[in-house]
Amino acid sequence: MSIIPLPHISQDVEKKPGMRRYCLPDNLSQFIEQQLIKIGFSLSKPKSLARAILDQSDFYIEHPQQETSWKEQGFRAAQMAYYFPLNWIRAQAVLDRGEAVGFWRGLDSYLEFGSGLGPFTCQNRYFKSGLCVEPALEAQTIAGSLARYLDVTRPVRWDVEFEKRGTIDLAIFSYVLTELPQLPSWVHEIKNLVLVEPSTQKDGRRLMNIRESLIKDGYYPWAPCVHDMACPLLAESKKDWCHDRVAFDAPPWWFEVEKHLPMRNRTITFSYLLMKKEKPTPRARNCARLVGDSLVEKGKTRQMLCHDSSRKFLSWLHKEAGKFELPRGEVVVIPEDAVKKGTEIRIRHKPESGLSP
After folding, report:
1. Torsional sign, CA 119, 121, 127, 130
2. In a domain, 145, yes or no
3. DSSP letters of 6-73?
4. Domain match, 117 and 260 both
5. Whether residues 76 and 125 fall in one domain
6. Residue 233 and residue 293 in one domain
7. Given CB 3.0 to 4.6 Å as the disulfide criterion, which of 21, 119, 196, 264 pairs with 87?
């Protein structure tokens, strides 16, 4: 399965106070270097790596639904040195979001569909057994070596296609929906679903539509949503979309590669859904998720939030509440003394953190 590139624009965004921060483990960088050397690349030669990354990004943009070949050395180099590290961070962030709401509790077996190098499989926590479905045998070989290198203790099986042979508690789809016109029919037999997609407007809004469809089929959103009503960004806007953002503390070699790229990744964004055929633990009545970045205006700050089926903004006057920033994606508790003003919920002091899936 292919991995959608980041757009060719700068992604330098000021790191908001309280934003969750992630980094790559040293042994992952070591593994990447070992694999690159086998195919004539190296982290010590950032310019050639950047060229492979740009070639792959251009291919994805020009042919978004066309399969790519793991047999091509440039493709493998771009995946290992760029796309997989980003997806590693996204997987870490989604696992943490799910842990905060108890999503993984009681789940033993999982399927990672279109797994590539297995960004979720290589996170060595929560599960007792796994199945990775990946049609490219070259990717399977590298993924297996990576899992062993990182001491993944659970038994994991790789197959080129999905054939249900036993109980599967959870299905994970990470950056594969662009190649699928719709979710496979067998999905609805699995009670727990994870979907992670690019943070683009098109993919984000498609994921919001999938959420509506899954709710009709008996699923409940556990994260990022704080309710199971209609999505306000879908119902009341034609352009907004839901996505998360975390800070990336990149290793030194990453910055050397980026010197030759038009895109920067000081923060990493992604859209995601965690769905169950089981109701989540009830949240506090005033819990809301921040689904926008802070918009600082003259004497005032506004920030889009998701609380129910209507599109709203949290807002505060600097002279009353002070000047502060809240990280996108987090959950806050709307103060009891907040005042509604049209589409705004005006607060007089910084809100407390709520449950932060």
Report:
1. positive
2. yes
3. PPSS-------TT--EEE--HHHHHHHHHHHHHTT--TT-HHHHHHHHHHHHHHHHH-TTS---TTSH
4. yes
5. yes
6. no
7. 119
Q: How many domains does the chain contain in total?
A: 2
Residues 346 and 270 in one domain: no
CB 343 within 8 A of CB 313: yes
Q: Are 334 and 347 in contact (CB under 8 A)?
A: yes
User: Could you read off the pLDDT of 255-301 as tens digits, one per residue?
Assistant: 999 999 998 889 999 999 999 999 998 887 789 999 999 999 999 99
pLDDT digits (tens, 9 = 90+) for 109-165: 999 999 999 999 999 888 999 999 999 999 999 999 999 999 999 999 999 998 877
Examine the domain organization and report whether 209 and 315 are in the same domain.
no
Distance in angstroms (rounded) separating the CA atoms of residues 277 and 225? 15
Question: What single-letter amino acid sits at 171?
Answer: A
Q: Which of 192, 172, 189 is nearest to 121 (CA)?
A: 172
Domain coverage including residue 295? 287-353
